Structures are given as structure tokens and as C-alpha cells.
Amino acid sequence: MSAIGSMPNGSAVRSQFIAGLDDQSGDWELVLRESHHRMKNTLTLLGASVRRDFTRAGTSDVSQAVDRFERRIVAFGRLYQLLSDNDDPAPVAVAPFFENLCGAISEAVLEPAGIRCEAAIESGTLPASQCHRLALMLTELVTNAAKHAFPNKKGALIRVDVARRDGAWVCTVADNGIGATGPLQGTGSRILEGLARSIHARLQGEAGQGGTQVSIVMPTTA
């Protein structure tokens, strides 16, 4: 796959659509409540795709629709388990953790919506708490892109990159959709801000005709 950080040349416009961190966003209990709210929204997306399948399915296709529904429910359960808080002090292997996360998101959310997912994950280890919070942020960014970036689903692609660069872990979600036109707002923004603050990370965003990308930059000393 092409470099996750690359954007098309030409009329691509940089956009400072990530708002500055707010001092009040550090309330971890609030972040957790809103994260669970976001997971409920993800389940709503899953339910909508299931309704579409059963509406379109003829009598002979019902069993196939049931099989697809079962696979998505299993994938959603795996996704929820990965996002559940983990107090285990043992370090987590980054590559298998995020590859499993991207697979679960893709099967539960993206594939039913006709969106492809590509991932490039670098090897390494992180504390479980940092992996968990990065996973919540990546899931929020991917879900947000799936909901808003593709009014026309043809050729829709979301790319996830997790790599170490210049003394930091950089986690990037990029899409080839219509491009963000303003700052992230509402519940999603508060989740991202609170989670970023909790791991001493910063958010960087860029948008243009080629799509939108958001990077989470977390120093390795955090």
C-alpha cells in the first residue's frame, strides 16, 4: 500500500480541523461514558446493515444473510473485547493487537458498508493501558470516517498505519473520501481530546480533495 501519510498533490488543502485540547476534557470517567456511547452507535450501524441484508434477501438468500449477520456479531464482540479496559501491567505486542483490531472493525463495520480497510502495523510493545486508549481513538476515527467520508461508497477505502517515528508512536487513519470541511465536534471530538490528553498525545489533521487523515502522535516516553 502507499504511504499512509501521503496526500494527493494539486488542490489538496490543509485544514486545522482538530481542535486544541480542552482542560475540561481530562475527565476520564466522562471519556469512558462517551466511549461506550460511541460503541452503541457502532452497534446501530451494524444493525442497519443487517436490516438492509434481510430486506434485500429473497427466500433462498435468507440463510446466507443469517450467516453474514452471525459473523458480524462475532466480530463486534471481538471488537468490544479489544476495547474493554485492561489493567494488566504486562506489555502488549503492537502488531497482533492492532491487526486484530482492524480486522474486527473491518468485518463488523466497514465491510457491511462497502468500505475496504488496509493496515500497516509496525512491531513493538506498549503498556496495555496505552494500547487500549489508542485502540479507542483509532476506532472512533475509523467509525467517524465510515459515517461521514463516503456519500458515494464506490472505491471507499480507509487506511490505518501504526509506526514508530522520531521517538513517538504515530497512529494514522486516512480515507479517500470527500475531505473534512471543519473541526471535529461533539461527542467524538471530546472522546479524542480526553483520550489524547490521558496518554500525553497530540492530534494532527489534514484534509483535501483526496480525503482526510488524522494522526495520533504519542511520545514513547509517555
Can you tell me about this structure?
Its EC number is 2.7.13.3. GO terms for molecular function: ATP binding; protein histidine kinase activity. The chain is α+β, with helices and mostly antiparallel strands and 222 residues long. The chain has a single domain (23-219), classed as Heat Shock Protein 90. It contains 5 helices and 7 strands; from the N terminus they run H-H-E-H-E-E-H-E-E-H-E-E. It has a 5-stranded mixed sheet, covered by helices on one side. Strand 6 (202-208) and strand 7 (211-219) form a beta hairpin. Helix 1 packs across helix 5, helix 2 runs antiparallel to helix 3 and helix 3 packs parallel to helix 4. The two termini are 30 Å apart. The model is unreliable at 1-26 (pLDDT under 50).
Strand and helix layout:
Layout: H1 28-56, H2 62-83, E1 91-93, H3 94-110, E2 116-121, E3 125-127, H4 128-148, E4 157-165, E5 168-175, H5 186-198, E6 202-208, E7 211-219
Parallel strand pairs: 2-4
Antiparallel strand pairs: 1-3, 4-5, 5-7, 6-7
Helix pairs in contact: 1-2, 1-5, 2-3, 3-4, 4-5
Domain Signal transduction histidine kinase subgroup 2 dimerisation and phosphoacceptor: 34-108
EC number: 2.7.13.3
Catalytic activity: ATP + protein L-histidine = ADP + protein N-phospho-L-histidine
Please outline what is shown here.
It is built from 5 helices and 7 strands. The chain is of the alpha+beta class and 222 residues long. Mean pLDDT is 76; it is low at 1-26.
